[in-house]
Every structure is written in structure tokens, then in C-alpha cells.
């Protein structure tokens, strides 16, 4: 048995910007992203290799979270296309119409819900599959028990592959992002640190606190190490803040019951009513498993 945890916000953005025909609901509003997410999840549910039995989809609604109070430049709803922003609520209704559990985040982020779900269920099932390409979810990977799945790239990352590619353990991802920054989340990291230098330092020392203040004491040789060491020393408090921003909360108040994410099929009447309301006739016969 496996649990599939899906980054719904990522799926919504991906569907909105996908090079596919637009779609307007009978009411005239842009429903391309909403219908696209529903179609994507239907294909996931029908995929025999994924064999979905337990699934939840997490959404940011709104995008703003507690992290915006910690860093003014953190990602927010600002700049979201209005036609996309208007679908934050409807897409959750679409996922519920598929019989899938929805985790709608307000104070926290969708990523926090995914991290919490991974912690809650990882000892109850054979594998947790976190479906998102977002780098920060890498911190949740544990052996081959919790893995990250990039559906678009068809890539599955377990701990061995993560360590081989990154050069450090999954738990070091917040420290890595503290140095490099995360443009998607809106914090800059420290000037001069790239993926190679940050990866080598986190691989060698694991935590920011363990990195010597003097480059001469570093056991890894980096180009420009004197400047990097000085930058880290002068901006250490900022680095700790960035690490805090990058550290996912895995204690979001979600139900710990595995049965609450059990998927028993698409509720036929509810889903067909949803298809009619959105003019999504092409989807109404796609479900492979129905329930009353």
C-alpha cells in the first residue's frame, strides 16, 4: 500500500500555463486550470503503475502564509493572474468531486501539509509518494519509504538518488536553500553561494552552525572561499531566517487516520454534475472506478 500526496497548487499553475486549448465554463469564467487539474488527476488515478489507493491533494488558499510575516518578500498572491486566482476555490471543489481528500491551507502552506502527511503515514504504509518537483520537499525524503515524484520529468527520487545528486542528506535541504535562496518562494539566500558551493558545505558540515567561520578551517576547497566565509559570518542571522523559511512544518493539524485519505472511487453523481456545471463533457467518461 502506498499514499500519494499531491501538490495541488503546482498542478493548478501547471495546468493554467500548459500549451493546451483554453476552457470556459458555461458561466463564462476561465476554467482551463481547474479542468486541467481534474484531467491530470484522472490520469493519475487510472495509472496502473501508480495503483492509487490512498491520496490527498494540498492547496495554498490563499498563497500567503505565516512566513510572509517573517520575510516581506516571501511569495504571496501578488502578481497571480486574476483568472488563475479566481480558480483557487473551484479547483478544490473539482478535486472533491473526484472523491479525493483535499487539504486546504491558509495559515500554513501546501508544502507543510505534504510534509505533515508524509510524517503521519510513513510508518503505516510501504511508501509515501510526494508528487511535486519543488526542491524544498526533498527534506521529507526517507530511504525509499518517502520519495519525491516529478510527474512531468517521470523522475522518482529516493534518498540514495538524492544524496548522489545533491551531495548531502535530505534533512540538509533547508540549510542548502538558506545559502542558495529559493526564487520560487521569494527569499534570496546569501550573495555568492551557488548550488555547488552550498552543496559541498552542507555535505561536509550538515548544518549552518557547524561551518567554521574561517575558510582556512574548511575541509572542502571552494573557489572564493575567503569571500564566502566572510559573507556567511556577516549574514549568519539572515541565513538562519532563510533556513527557517525553508523548513517545512510537519505538525499541521491534519487527521492522522489513514482511512481519511483512502480513495474508494469517483462518486458518479457528484462528478457528472460537476462536469455539466463546468462544461467538461470530455472528462465525464474518463473515470475507471466509480462509487455511488
What does this protein look like?
This protein has 292 residues and is of the alpha/beta class. The protein has 2 domains: 2-159 and 249-291, Rossmann fold (3-Layer(aba) Sandwich); 166-246, Orthogonal Bundle (DNA polymerase, domain 1), CATH 1.10.150. The protein has 11 helices and 8 strands. It has helices at 8-17, 32-46, 82-85, 88-97, 110-121, 159-166, 173-180, 195-205, 225-234, 236-246, 268-278, and strands at 2-7, 54-60, 101-105, 127-131, 146-150, 155-157, 266-267, 290-291. The strands form 2 sheets. A 6-stranded mixed sheet has the order 3-2-1-4-5-6, with helices on both faces. The chain has a two-stranded parallel ribbon with strand order 7-8.
Please write out the topology.
Blueprint: E1 2-7, H1 8-17, H2 32-46, E2 54-60, H3 82-85, H4 88-97, E3 101-105, H5 110-121, E4 127-131, E5 146-150, E6 155-157, H6 159-166, H7 173-180, H8 195-205, H9 225-234, H10 236-246, E7 266-267, H11 268-278, E8 290-291
Parallel strand pairs: 1-2, 1-4, 2-3, 4-5, 7-8
Antiparallel strand pairs: 5-6
Give the CATH H-level superfamily of the largest domain: 5'-nuclease
The helical percent reads 25-40%
How would you classify the quaternary structure?
single chain
Count of discrete domains: 2
Report the structural category.
alpha/beta
The rounded Rg comes to: 21 Å
What share of residues are in beta strands?
5-15%
Q: H/E element string? A: EHHEHHEHEEEHHHHHEHE
Name of the top-level CATH class of the largest domain? Alpha Beta
CATH topology of the largest domain: Rossmann fold
Strand tally is: 8
Amino acid at each position: 500500500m502506498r499514499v500519494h500526496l499531491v501538490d495541488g497548487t503546482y498542478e493548478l499553475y501547471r495546468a493554467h500555463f500548459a500549451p493546451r486549448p483554453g476552457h470556459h465554463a458555461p458561466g463564462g469564467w476561465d476554467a482551463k486550470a481547474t479542468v486541467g487539474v481534474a484531467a491530470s488527476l484522472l490520469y493519475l488515478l487510472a495509472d496502473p503503475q501508480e495503483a492509487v489507493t490512498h491520496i490527498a491533494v494540498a492547496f495554498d488558499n490563499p498563497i500567503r502564509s505565516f512566513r510572509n510575516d517573517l520575510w516581506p518578500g516571501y511569495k504571496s498572491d501578488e502578481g497571480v493572474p486574476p483568472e488563475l486566482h479566481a480558480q483557487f476555490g473551484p479547483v478544490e471543489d473539482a478535486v472533491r468531486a473526484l472523491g479525493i481528500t483535499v487539504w486546504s491551507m491558509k495559515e500554513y502552506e501546501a508544502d507543510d501539509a505534504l510534509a505533515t502527511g508524509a510524517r503521519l503515514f510513513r510508518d503505516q504504509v510501504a511508501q509515501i509518494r510526494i508528487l511535486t518537483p519543488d526542491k524544498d520537499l526533498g527534506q521529507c525524503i526517507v530511504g525509499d519509504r518517502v520519495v519525491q515524484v516529478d510527474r512531468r520529468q517521470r523522475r522518482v527520487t529516493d534518498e540514495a538518488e538524492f544524496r548522489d545528486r545533491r551531495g548531502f542528506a535530505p534533512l540538509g535541504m533547508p540549510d542548502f536553500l538558506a545559502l542558495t535562496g529559493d526564487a520560487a518562494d521569494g527569499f534570496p539566500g546569501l550573495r555568492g553561494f551557488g548550488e555547488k558551493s552550498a552543496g559541498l558545505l552542507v555535505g561536509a558540515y550538515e548544518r549552518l552552525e557547524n561551518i567554521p567561520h574561517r575558510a582556512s578551517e574548511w575541509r572542502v576547497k571552494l573557489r572564493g572561499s575567503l569571500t564566502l566565509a566572510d559573507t556567511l559570518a556577516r549574514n549568519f542571522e539572515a541565513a538562519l531566517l532563510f533556513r527557517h523559511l525553508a523548513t517545512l512544518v510537519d505538525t499541521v493539524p491534519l487527521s492522522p487516520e489513514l482511512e481519511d485519505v483512502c480513495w474508494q472511487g469517483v462518486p458518479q453523481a457528484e462528478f457528472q454534475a460537476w462536469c455539466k456545471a463546468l462544461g467538461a463533457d470530455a472528462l465525464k467518461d474518463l473515470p475507471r472506478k466509480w462509487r455511488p
